[in-house]
TrEMBL record:
It comes from the Bacteria. Pfam families: Glycos_transf_2. Gene3D superfamilies: Spore Coat Polysaccharide Biosynthesis Protein SpsA, Chain A. SUPFAM superfamilies: Nucleotide-diphospho-sugar transferases (SSF53448). Residues 2-104 form the Glycosyltransferase 2-like domain. This is Glycosyltransferase 2-like domain-containing protein.
Amino acid sequence: MNTGYGHTCNLGIAHSSGDYIAVFEPDDLIPDDFYQVLLHHANITNADIIKYNGIYKFNTNVDNKERIFKLKNFPKGKFFKYDYPRFWISHPATINAIYKKEFLYNNCIKYVEGAGASYQDVQFLVSLFYGNPSIVLLDQCKYMYRHHNGQSVNQTSSNILDNVIKNWKEFFVISREFINRESSWFAIIQMYRQCISLEKRMVRNSNQLSIFYVKSLFRYGFPKIEQLRWFGFSKIDIVKFYLFPIRVLFLYLISKTPFFS
């Protein structure tokens, strides 16, 4: 029985016996030394996360592959979460890294278990941030990610939005011990970025996720300008960020649907 991406990953982590864990998707491709290289740096640095710099994406022809992201000018050796903001702004792939199992357990980090594959890596990345990990980034790209038309990154139905909202709700329940009005800014910004991304990608209206985001703002408060700047927001980006909930509320107002339903 398929219990969903997040549940399957959590089950595998729970039954693992090594010091480090990794997630590999069986349709993808990796070279023989993929984990050997990561574990070599784990033994040297004892870092919580050892990650390759990017992933390749391909459809049917592995020779026709595209590098999805590449971080530049990152710290050499081990660094921490505030040392390099770009690490948290990049593609949230969790499949091109290994994670210290003790670090995950000590910080209650796990995948949310929304139905199917519905961007569960986003909440996992946010949880990693709040765990304050030590990180080593290797300037290599070895993971080849097979791109299917039916994946969450290509879905345009309202079902994917329902699942994404469920993922965020579950995340806030799991994280209630360390998420409050002072610390919520990182999660709020990531949720905003996901709203914008899905709004551009979705054929159908993604308003339901945007409404959930605005409700979260009412609960946790707005991030500060300096936090947005740390995240790499330009002046125009900051203006758009603060105007976004006004636009959402206006569209909701003219729809004559109760906001606090």
